[in-house]
Amino acid sequence: MDTILIITGVVLLIAGLAGAVLPVLPGPPLSFLALVVLHFTTRQPFTTDFLVFWGIVAAVVTVLDYWVPVYGTKKFGGSKRGATGSAVGLVVGILFMGPFGVLIGPFLGAYIGELTAGSDSRVALKAAIGSFLGFLAGTAMKLIFAAVMIVLFVRSFF
Description:
Elements: H1 2-19, H2 27-39, H3 48-75, H4 80-97, H5 101-116, H6 121-155
Helix pairs in contact: 1-2, 1-6, 2-3, 2-6, 3-4, 3-6, 4-5, 5-6
């Protein structure tokens, strides 16, 4: 049974790492679930307080991931349409540009979103930069969280 739980945990860690970049996967919760699954092995390496703490951190990171790009867009003078364009651009970018789409898609999406909202090109560019920086900050935050979960998972074996 431990083997199945450990394999499930590894799969969840991989999915969580992918979810740090792909918007369709909830990266932090998946990464955290890997620790929860590992907790139910005969090793039981984690205390309840430890799991509660990291569960709260996973929830905070997930909420911030949705809030930071919108904040970045608004801070740089953008609208909701720019923030929505950034999210749509990410999905379209991944589908049509592969790994480069993760970087190019949100920027172009925010820019086009702002243009369709009636902003001039200068304002749209500024908002696109804000949205892009917010997206990068959110992605970095999720990647760091996923890396911490991987380290905690691996350390539980040693």
